[in-house]
Amino acid sequence: MNNFFSIDQRLMDLAAQAEETAREAFRRIDENCEYNSAKVLSAFIRNRVSESHLKGTTGYGYGDRGRDDLDRVFADIFGTEDALVRHTFVSGTHALATALFGVLRPGDRMVSVTGSPYDTMEETIGLRGEGTGSLGEFGVTYSQVDLLPDGTPDYEGIRREAKGARMVYLQRSRGYSLRPSLNIETIRSIIAAAREVNPDAIVMVDNCYGELVERLEPTQVGADLVAGSLIKNPGGGIAPTGGYIAGRRDLVEQCGYRLTCPGMGKEVGCTLDVLRSMYLGLFNAPAVVAAALKTAAFAAAFYSLLGFQVTPTASEERTDIIQSVLCGGPEQLIAFCQGIQKGSPVDSFAAPEPWDMPGYDSQVIMAAGAFTMGASIELSADAPLREPYAAWLQGGLTYPTGKIGVILSAQEMLERGLLKL
């Protein structure tokens, strides 16, 4: 590596130790990758994907076989009745908002049973902002069940609040918090608790960062809807934009009416020239997710050896691609992110700075030298500049380059006198 990068030998020695520490985690990741690769391949084969599916349409997009069969491939992988996969979703937040507005009506109540939702969902729900056309302004009420102090679900609270709720909402990843991400078995238990008291509730899961990490998806353990972004896991680092919703056919149909308009729904929407990248990205996704997971496990082991608190640890089983590293303050956090940027294939020379990013209530720093702007399946690190000054690392299209980026983040802190060896 030092043929190409100037890295302190002490960091290189620690990196070798970290890689050995993460070896068992790598083995588990590879096993799941093989399983999910077979799952994806079989979905392509069962749905008879052909070269003609890779060509886009223009105008209204009537009869777009590539679009319609991509929905079927996603539904097959997620074990659902239907899916809505579109490049016109501008982000994961947009896909989630479309699902919420698609199925909730004035007078309904949604309850978040995993504590506060991700920052960008707060204005959608109506927890922040005024005059934005939020769910709250349309008469949808909101309640919340916080996690217990140890980060586990409050099942008693879930049973209490789920009564009478139209929607039970779960967020799989930790977001900008240090609570554990939800594994599939925990999601299964939460859904069972909610259905004990409210069998008719719609259970929706924010699946961002979690797709193809485990062998099952939330919809295969009882969730009615999942949604996420194609510039995260299921786009495989190739899809240039987009998102998806998958779940019950009647609910997906309602989401389609919200995305376009009543009476048209999923039947319209041209795909231009993006279908090839969406199919190819999905096909590559299990291997790319595995690379991101290995990068995260290595980062956990490496930064633990450097004396940092990390969550999850290298040995913990993972349910999403996010790795948090607690820095000692804003200077160290900024240096960490700027070091990740220096290990990026695109815009490595740029120095990210905190800024007032739309949708967030704190300044946010984001390192992402990516082929697709903001693609967090590519190596990236971001954080709000607030306590506990943790950096949230995710992505890595390949493990070897992801590892280099992680090491360079420590090198940056070392050069600035913010890290002692």
The percent range for helix content is: 25-40%
Assign an overall shape: globular
Instruction: Average the pLDDT over all residues and give the rounded result.
Output: 96
Number of helices: 11
Largest sheet entry = 7 strands, mixed
- Across the major sheet, the strand order is 1-7-6-5-4-2-3
> Are there runs of 5+ residues with pLDDT below 50, and where?
none
SSE sequence, one letter per element: HHHEHEHEHEHEEEHHEEHEEEH
| Beta fraction | 5-15%
Taking all Cα atoms into account, the compactness measure Rg is: 21 Å
Query: What is the tally of beta strands?
Result: 12
The SS-based structural class is: alpha/beta
Note the gap between the termini.
20 Å
Put the structure in a nutshell:
Helices cover 38% and strands 13% of the residues. It is of the alpha/beta class and 421 residues long.
Can you characterise this structure?
It is built from eleven helices and twelve strands. The chain has helices at residues 9-21, 23-46, 65-78, 92-103, 122-125, 155-162, 184-197, 249-259, 275-305, 330-342, 399-415, and strands spanning 82-86, 109-112, 141-144, 167-171, 202-206, 225-229, 243-247, 310-311, 323-326, 364-367, 380-384, 390-394. Strands 1-7-6-5-4-2-3 form a seven-stranded mixed sheet, with helices on both faces. Helix 2 (23-46) runs antiparallel to helix 9 (275-305) and helix 9 crosses helix 11. It is globular and about 65 Å long. It starts with 8 loop residues before the first helix and ends in a 6-residue tail after the last helix. The mean pLDDT is 96.
